[in-house]
Amino acid sequence: MLKRDRQCRICKKAEAVEADHWPLDRKTLVAMGLDPDNPEYGRGLCHSCHSSETARYQPGGWYRHAPW
Ligand SMILES: [Zn+2]
């Protein structure tokens, strides 16, 4: 999906470097029997937007395992 989304889908300024599952998260896609790797269910984001989106929609997500 990063080939499709060359620009960040949120700020539309930075280069898209990370693939984000949207509008459904990976767990939901799998639970619905859908392919989470299908580009239809994702979007490309820049690093800063991806980080803020992840923090907002998945509290306790990736940063839960941080050492601090
Ligand atoms: Zn961005």
Automatic annotation (TrEMBL):
UniProt-recorded name of the protein: Holin
Species for this entry: Nocardiopsis codii
